[in-house]
Amino acid sequence: MRVVGIEGTAWAASAALYDTDTEAVVIESDAYQPESGGIHPREAAEHMGSAIPEVVSAILDHADETSDGPGLDIDAVAFSRGPGLGPCLRVVGTAARSLAGTLSVPLVGVNHMVAHLEIGRHQSGFDSPVCLNASGANAHLLGYHDGRYRILGETMDTGVGNAIDKFTRHLGWSHPGGPKVERRAADGEYYDLPYVVKGMDFSFSGIMSAAKDAVDEGVPVEDVCAGLQETIFAMLTEVAERALSLTGTDELVLGGGVGQNRRLREMLESMCEQRGADFYAPDPRFLRDNAGMIAVLGAKMHAAGDTLSIPESSVDPDFRPDEVPVTWRGDAES
Ligand code: ATP
Q1: Distance from Cα 304 to the centre of ligand 1, integer Å
Q2: Residue of 27, 164, 268 to test ligand 1 pocket, by largest number of atoms within 8 Å of CB
Q3: 236 shares its domain with 308
Q4: Is 153 found in the same domain as 94?
Q5: Strand, coil or helix: what is 107?
Q6: Does the beta carbon of 7 sit less than 6 angstroms from any atom of ligand 1?
Q7: Do 204 and 158 touch, CB atoms closer than 8 A?
Q8: CA–CA separation, 247 vs 255, rounded Å?
């Protein structure tokens, strides 16, 4: 089976082709780069409007070149239905509906956060892992129970990447801030910042205010970056450990763009090692937003008959992972 995936929830206009026989995932992406500040929804949607047709066209060319017979040999079109920025999602939804209609193939609506989890589960071969999704707009722990991915703990305010990006915007650094904080933290000494975990949930807003104040008061920015990473990632690691303990699972996967951070991966890996659990972090190209994960989960959903008619295919900017009936796992209720 060959499935085209289309992603565009925030900054990455992305299309992919996934072939279930060869397991090959080819991804074409074009990133929106704000001229200043953070992601502006209208500008991001304009980017999607021009970049989605281009990345889709590149993937269709690839499908044509690698097709065994006549035609493109595509079985389904999968797209990110949400969560994400409404104006961007609407562009993606329109592109996916028109492509599925043109090719006369089924349409599959994928939850972007479940796709972050499923790409790790797919590549690791883990059976039923807990997933830490550490992305731009989200931060939560997911665990499977009774036909759904349940949210075991989550941020009480902003997503983890957005929190870091707000701090770097205060410093006048360009978007995205996460990689820059990682580089500067390597030259810094730990600086103490508030640590906010409440049960299974956590909060970043107070830490960010304290980090901004510290820089304004003259604390070296490298030290604040080091303190920021250690504090935020320790919070995520603590809650991930509690989720493993709560569920009795000994498998952890990481998802989301912040998962590209080496220090976060080190902390999670070391925690898992100490508990005798297995840890898996996908390659960076599958951690940051990408259409590959949409195509891979789209193929599983299509195989399970989980497709959408056009009237059912509206996008949902607030689409939570626990709203999704997990139809594609052998042990799931449909
Ligand atoms: P979501 O998946 O919730 O829709 P998103 O669309 O913002 O999130 P992602 O690609 O998952 O996109 O994550 C982007 C975020 O990852 C940005 O906030 C960016 O600063 C952060 N990020 C990227 N690289 C690193 C890094 N090395 N360290 C920390 N954060 C990073």
Answers
A1: 30
A2: 164
A3: no
A4: no
A5: strand
A6: no
A7: yes
A8: 19
Q: What is the pLDDT of residues 31-71, one digit of tens each?
A: 999 988 889 999 999 999 999 999 999 999 999 999 988 88
Same domain, 107 and 12: yes
Q: Which of 110, 133, 135, 169 to mutate to test the pocket of ligand 1 (most atoms within 8 A of CB)?
A: 135
**What is the ipTM for the molecules in this complex?**
0.98
**Buried residues in 60-69 as b, exposed as e (16+ CB within 10 A):** bebbeeeeee
pLDDT digits (tens, 9 = 90+) for 191-239: 999 999 999 999 999 999 999 999 999 999 999 999 999 999 999 999 9
The answer on 243 and 159 residing in a single domain is yes
Lookup: tokens for 103: 């090719």
State which amino acid sits at residue 42: R
Answer yes or no: is the C-beta of 159 below 6 A from any ligand 1 atom: yes
Query: How far is ligand 1, taken at its centre, from the CA of residue 135, in Å?
Result: 5
**Band of pLDDT at residue 330, cut at 50, 70 and 90:** confident
Q: What are the beta bridge partners of residue 254?
A: 132
Closest CA to 256 of 211, 307, 290, 297: 290
In a domain, 191, yes or no: yes
Q: Is the CB of 9 under 6 A from ligand 1?
A: yes
Q: How far apart, in whole angstroms, are the C-alpha atoms of residue 252 and residue 250?
A: 7
CA of 9 to the centre of ligand 1 (A): 12
Amino acid letter, 223: D
Q: Whose CA is nearest to atom 12 of ligand 1?
A: 136
Distance 64 CA to ligand 1 centre (A): 32
Domain coverage including residue 13: 2-115+286-323
**Burial (CB count <10 Å: 0-12, 13-18, 19+), residue 140:** buried
Token readout for 153 is 């703990």
Nearest to 258 by CA among 321, 192, 182, 156: 182
Average pLDDT score over residue span 240-247? 97
